[in-house]
Amino acid sequence: MINPILKNIIENALNEDIGKGDITTSAIVKKDIIGLGELLVKQDGVIAGLDVLETLYSIFDPELKFKKNKNDGEKVTSGQVAATIEGSIASILTTERTALNFLQRMSGIATSANTFVKNIKHTNAKILDTRKTAPGLRYIDKLAVKISGCENHRIGLYDMFLIKDNHIVAAGSITKAVNACKKYRKSKGSNFKIEVETTNLEQVAEALKCNVDFIMLDNFNIKEMEEAVKLIDGKCKIEASGGIDLSTVKQIAETGVDFISVGALTHSVKALDISLEIFIQK
């Protein structure tokens, strides 16, 4: 059964590109021309999105035969054919850009995220994504992160309490904000976790007294982060956040934090170079 969220994303993407019809392909390519399309990798990386493409082709033209030569999450090198599509050349051409947009974006995310994973593999820290995703593509972006070996943070505003600086200002204090969330949680009979964003050690101490599930250390330097880890002393999970990149992630992971969130995984995506080559069957 096709995931309804994924189905909706794919259908919207196809409608966005095709609209009332692919006039170029309709003018040039006869519907009965059969051939093969190869998804050619032109850059080393981690492939992600092949399962999404399999769903895309089944939605657009169920008669297309999609064959994976690689599985999502596997490393690929330039020159490899990640998958093939056999059937109507018209269908393959009409879906070309939409398919490549998904595959290139997801593979770019997975490749970048996997690099972060490799840099901290000697620690117990886990890399998290954020909500800094392309509007309408959060499911896709976070799926690519998961495929890479990283973990997903909250999916949206509905599955976890995350008290940020502006919430604290609005409530009057961290304590008041946490108590309001606990009261709301009890009224709804839910068990959503509570995380508090902190910007200094005084806020860390206050959040710790509130018995929250996660404390976020936002833009802490390494020394402050080490002090915060000692202060928290395993009483809750710790997330490091704020402009983290490959030049800093290793040192941050070595402070003993549990999670490191990296917005750049999804807000600054560099697509993996992949192309579609077609061959006509005679």
Comma- or semicolon-separated keywords:
12 helices; six-stranded parallel beta sheet; TIM Barrel; Aldehyde Oxidoreductase, domain 3; 2 domains; alpha/beta
Ends apart, CA distance between termini = 35 Å
Tally of extended strands? 12
Order of helices and strands: HHEEHEEEHHEHEHHEHEHEHEHE
CATH architecture classification of the largest domain: Alpha-Beta Barrel
Low-confidence stretches: none
The structure class reads: alpha/beta
Percent of residues in β-strands: 15-25%
* Shape verdict: elongated
Q: Report helical residue fraction.
A: 40-55%
Query: Would you tell me the overall average pLDDT?
Result: 97
Physical arrangement of strands within the biggest beta sheet = 6-11-10-9-8-7
Q: Any idea what the CATH superfamily of the largest domain is called?
A: Aldolase class I
Quaternary structure type: single chain
As for the number of domains, it is: 2
Name of the top-level CATH class of the largest domain: Alpha Beta
Number of helices in the DSSP assignment: 12
Return Rg in Å.
23 Å
What do we call the CATH topology of the largest domain? TIM Barrel
What characterizes the major β-sheet?
6 strands, parallel
